[in-house]
Design goal:
Alpha-Beta Plaits, 2 domains, nine-stranded mixed beta sheet, four-stranded antiparallel beta sheet, 24% strand, metal-binding, metal ion binding, hydrolase activity, acting on carbon-nitrogen (but not peptide) bonds, in linear amidines, zinc, Peptidase_M20
Length: 411
Amino acid sequence: MYNIDLPRLKSTLLELSQIGFNEEDHGMYRQGFTDDDMKARHWLLDMARKEGFIADMDGAGNVWFGLGELDKPAVIIGSHLDTVPAGGIFDGALGVIAGLEVLRVIKDNNIQLDFPLRVVGTAEEEGRFGGMFGAQSITGKLNMDWLLSARDADGMYLTDAMKNQGLNPMDALEVAWPQDRIKNFFELHIEQGPVLEKMDIPIGIVDGISGVFKWIVHLKGKADHAGTAPMDMRSDAFMGLADFAHEITRIIDENGTDKTRITVGKVQLKPGYPHTVPGEAIFTIVGRDMSEDIMRDLADVCDKTLNSIARRHRLRFEREEASWLPPHYCTDSMIELMEQKAQDRGWPFLRMPSGAGHDVQFFTEVTEAGLIFIPSVNGVSHAPDEWSHWHHVEKGANLLLDCVLDKVSKD
């Protein structure tokens, strides 16, 4: 039985964490197609090439490296390199660097592969422009209309962000892998929740990924003087936002499940002056559930609720659907493989759903795909204090190694 080199994996991950690190809040800032995001991609390309692996970047900004010629279907390990603003060092990056470590173990031990092996660091997974961009490009899910219209919450178009980094956005439509070229897809990720740590279980084996929709909402009223405008005569956009926030619990109780999540994550008030009644509120709504039918119900109720609130406060309600990602389910055979390999190591595991979206969900539509979780300390993620213990990292990477070795050999 082979094992990963934990000090080497740790050193590489910590080196990557210096790119986009903010000294003030200790958070990571590698949002998709920013300078630091691209710096990390080129850093990884250089490292992979120096270590003797085949490496390149495709037209969508996905970084690829691995072993073996692509004359047979490839086993792929993947996760993302970008982060949310003020994110942690493990989310996404762990899966990519663990994939690099799997390749190093294979190279160090001169393990002969019957199938080619590739690791991919996907582009723009975290949702600056809607999310999962790299995975969608690889699996053939991109379309021209979305590519040309996608923009972030600040109004920057995806196409412009790509051009700023020397990429031709149209090239992203040409990078899809035919289904018969992909044998399996594996992803290792931190849980981003408290379940595994609370239950003291080192391995999570994911059976399904929650669907996600993201809206950019505008409530437009009338800016007015905060001292002279009577309270009952205002068209206060913030009051509309506040009323909607108070409705979220009711919407979930009446139309959701125990797996439903609705979040107002980013808010901007205009004109944004202390002595002026806000004339416009711009905010995001992100909804999640394991059932697409329930997602549709939630979206419909959110729409009706916002329309009602807008009328009550004399506001105009507009919304843009930035993304709609349906739920996906991992492949039974991959789940069973992961469970068997964990049993072989003598490690407890939990079969569980993922409330967060991951690159793997797009690969479930085109190949056998599986997702491994390791615990997050206190369930924290998307924050500077995101952390996973190194002994859990070691177990997760070794389970990934065991499963990949099973698949790169002849069936």
